[in-house]
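step: validate -> pass
step: tokenize input -> pass
step: predict -> running
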Amino acid sequence: MYPGKGRVFYGWFALGGVMLVIFVVGGAFVHSFGVLLPVISSEFDWSRAVVAGALAAGIMAFGLPSPLYGVLVGRLGPRVTIIFGNLLAALGIAGIYLVQEVWHNYLLYILIGLGGGFGGYISCTTVANNWFIKKRSLALGIFIASAGLGGFVFPPLTTSLIEAIGWRETWLVLAGMIILLAVVIGGVILVRNKPEDMGLLPDGMPADAFSEMEVAESQAATEEESAGWSIKQVLKRPTAWLIGGFSAANTFTMGTMVTHQIAYLQDINFSPMTAATTLSFMSIFSIMGSLVFGALAMRFKVRYMASVAFGIQMMGLIILLTTRELGLIYVYAAFQGVSNGALTTAMPTFVGAYYRRDRYSQVMGVVLPFQVCSNAIAATVAGAIFDATGSYTPAFATAVVFSLAGLIFVYMARRPKSSRPGGE
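step: predict -> pass
step: emit ->
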């Protein structure tokens, strides 16, 4: 029987494919790096700052060329970019087996970042956006949650592998996992670009289940309509900038907290294990936040829900700054996790709701660098503030200001007038 013609809508299989991609590539690329850092630093007697710079270079390679990635995804289709991008990422991760010099590490992480950027976030969210309209936010919430799951699974997995077979061999195993799960199962077997390629409609619904506008947006845009939403015209309107702004505000706040909260909690006399546990607690609630936001956004306006998420984020930060009680510290961690999961899901949901499907990858290419650059500088800025003042209070207060700015940006991010109607 032809896939997608049975009882289960094929979009869920396509979504499963991109979930595998973001789970394994994000886990191997970002979340396993913290395990590699002390090992490779000790092996070669390199400073941790020098080693950590390789990940920063990789993240920049992942995010800064996003406008180009967006154009290529639009032209080639996300399935092609997922397959070839992740082959490139796997090649870079396997190459860590051969590292002997500092520059080797930087070169390989740039290669991993380029491959992950080409075949990762933009490609995967484009698949989810193509296959779902009514359930778009739910699909994206599930997708984002799978990235959080990678952060939960891969650090202990990578640690166990290093202890069992050595750090060089571990990265060969991780490369093999990317090829098997992301390239073969995810890209080749499961992912299809859009439902129309299989004679289907988004959400698996019959045509009469959609409003006239929803049916129109599920079809390919005419040349005239597509020309009306060129990237140049998108950039002339404030919406894309506001989406990028609120995404940057969230990633700055979370980048600050994820990097520095363990040190802060130890400074106020919590044990290292207790401090580390709060970060795991935050990760679990981040997964919950993605799923809950995705489900609720099918019923309520995304703009209002994202505003509430920023409010929760600020409340969490205020709790952290004003308490020494362990129970309230865990409340802070829960608030931060829920808000980050919700806001991470909100960004691609906004783009999908406000812009045509045929322009989704290009707009995502414009918005994503805001998030990446903010994440890259957050930990450094917070560290510099601490070094200058001897306290984390000004740094965390800065994060509160960013959260407030994010709330303002997200509330102002209304659908551009000439864009397609859809959920706000």
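step: describe -> The two ends are 38 Å apart (CA to CA).
step: cleanup -> pass
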